[in-house]
Amino acid sequence: MAMPAMGGETEAGMEGGMEAGPGTMPAESGAGMTGEIDTDPATGATGAVFMKLVNHGGEADRLVGAESAVATTVELHQSTLTDGVMKMSPVPDIPIPANGEVVLKPGDYHLMLLGLTRDLNVGDEFDVTLRFEKSQPLLLQVAVREQ
User: Domains plus CATH for the chain?
Assistant: First the structure.
């Protein structure tokens, strides 16, 4: 069974708030925070979300969780290749270095949407809220698109 993929770019900064890189749908959450993300069509019980998180602050931060009404659970995951076998496992957080970035991409870190509450088709939109250890939460409006 193929797993639907969702992807895009989001930049996360601590001191200057959050800001977004190239994407489709802008969203705002709190003072000085914006985000954009693109997704791909998803149908079925699960989906994955990919993005780039950039920390413009001088202090490291961590993505510690995410929520969306389109899934009963959103988990932080990491895929690893061990002895030629790709394994996907939940992780408690995703570190974002000071003045650095982390890319959530296939075969590495990603958000896993579990128990989709509806089919996601090209053109659909939904919200995802990212939670960080130090930065304010970031509400993103996600647009489903063909990859």
Answer: 5-144 (2.60.40.1890)
